[in-house]
Amino acid sequence: MSSHRSQSSRRKVTVSYVIRDKDEPRHRSGINSVKLNGKSRVLFTAGRDSIIRCWKVTDHAMSTNKDPYIRSMEHHTDWVNDIILCRGGKTMISASSDTTVKVWDTERGFCMSTLRTHKDYVKALGYAADKEMVASAGFDRQIFLWDVNTLTALTATNNTVTTSSLSGHKDSIYSVALNQAGTIVVSGSTEKALRVWDPRTCGKQMKLRGHTDNVKAILISPDGTQCLSGGSDSTIRLWSLGQQRCVVTYKIHEEGVWTLATNEAFTRFYSSGRDRQVFETDMTTDASGMLFREKNTVLKLELDDGNMDGSPSLWVATTDSSISRWPITNTTVASEKSSQSTDSPLPTPTQIAPSFTLSGSPGIVRHHVLNNKRQILTKDTSEQVALWDVLMAKKLEDLGKVDFDEETQKRFERVYVPNWFTADSRTGVSAVQ
Description:
This protein starts with 16 loop residues before the first strand and ends with a strand. By secondary structure, it is mainly beta. The chain is built from 3 helices and 36 strands. Helix content is about 5%, strand content about 45%. It has a 5-stranded antiparallel sheet with strand order 22-23-24-25-29, with no helix packed on it. A 4-stranded antiparallel sheet has the order 2-3-4-5, with no helix packed on it. A 4-stranded antiparallel sheet has the order 6-7-8-9.
């Protein structure tokens, strides 16, 4: 009788790492989200380089040569798509394309816990301040509701957390918002409609149709009676949730609207997106005026009412690695009605330059793995070409502004080495896996 011993299959382990400088005080790719703690004057910026950075943005700090950079908060492994501040700014929640939601202690700058409930990119977060409740939504078509006080109480031994889910979306979710009291959730997706939910029962209340493309931005009035939405169809719509209909359509942009911000009274809103133009609109008169035009596609706007001189401003995040602060003058809103045609002549911006800029660093936009399967050639946003060693995980040489394709051909070797890693530069740095 022969015996047979089964061998346990070896588990395949994947190792991934990033090749970059030891200290990275500047973003190297676009910035997806910006949040300001008005009391401490600390600005949090969430980058496509997977890092959240903190900046001290007092008027004194910005008027001197002192570096406003405080620290980097590193724990995500892919784009950080959205961030929100909770518990008076003591806690931050982040959402990432690495499919996780993370809870951060902002005062000490470390990650307290990681939530792995989502199964795909987590794109958007919503926050109800009165209830300390957060909603997370993403490409898995799910919305999860989290109690912030419970999340901050998690420990290594007590790490069990329960969540409610809102299910029913048929497409990827790009935007989500809650009212201040936490009684309404509104979400937007490639379904071209807004879905309204009751978080207390996790039930669907209504579906609001009107957009003809993806709904990328949503804001709810503090009392929960109205909702603003911006879409890739280039329109902004004001909805009455009580009447379940669109009451005003603002046609002020030439291309998709990707971000919205409002004042506390919900009487004015600021909008921008793919066309790089930032508008201010008075909802009491439906008049709009162009504030300024950015150099790159705008991803996020954050209103800053805390300037020492009392004048408001906007922090603007774009597909570039820098963040700019633009002043808002008192004469910004012109007599341009919301029904204006986008075929009308381009309006004149009231500002031509930002008042302050947090400069970023060049990010890698192109890479090529040489056929020796050890070195990578890269090109960044400043046209600089560099050579990297994968095994040593360091830069070998700065080649300057040379032709990337010619340099690739020049370094071709007649040698065959099997592929043993893949390289990626979507975060603006060299990632090896």
